[in-house]
Design a protein that fits this description.
Blueprint lengths: L1 H15 L10 H9 L25 E2 L5 E2 L4 H8 L6 H4 L5 H15 L6 H15 L4
Antiparallel strand pairs: 1-2
Length: 136
């Protein structure tokens, strides 16, 4: 069984670097193929990081506002949300835009969050959807 695994591994490796399975493969060819296009210092892509609309640079985090992305709506979001719960619960969310709308209403109706004026509501919900939505 081990011999079959070794043969399969050799065939897969040879196919990955574009070499025929027969014959020997030089060690430098394997190293070049393994490192082709690989940058060990590149910033890894985190599928759970806050969404950034394509073409826009990632927003700087504001340490004075709990390390929320420092864009329009950060201050309003910080003060309203941190009055009742940790900002960590916001930062970990990856929910749909519709779910953010639902949670807004749920917090008002069931949790006693004060109703906000329409402009503030729109600013905070837009901020949450931009940075913490599963749709971006």
């Amino acid at each position: 069984m081990e011999q079959i695994k070794a043969i399969l591994a050799a065939v897969i490796l040879a196919a990955a670097i574009g070499a025929a399975p027969q014959g020997s493969i030089a060690a430098d060819e394997i190293e070049l193929a393994a490192n082709d296009g690989y940058d060990p210092m590149a910033r890894p892509v985190n599928p759970l990081s806050p969404g950034v609309p394509s073409g826009e640079p990632e927003a700087e985090l504001n340490p004075e506002l709990g390390n929320l992305p420092d864009t329009s709506g950060a201050e309003e979001t910080f003060y309203l949300c941190s009055a009742c719960h940790s900002l960590a619960i916001i930062k970990q969310q990856r929910i749909s835009d519709a779910r953010w709308d639902y949670l807004w209403n749920w917090m008002i109706e069931k949790q006693g969050m004060p109703e906000q004026d329409p402009a503030t509501k729109e600013k905070i919900l837009s901020y949450l959807k931009r940075h913490f939505s599963s749709e971006r």
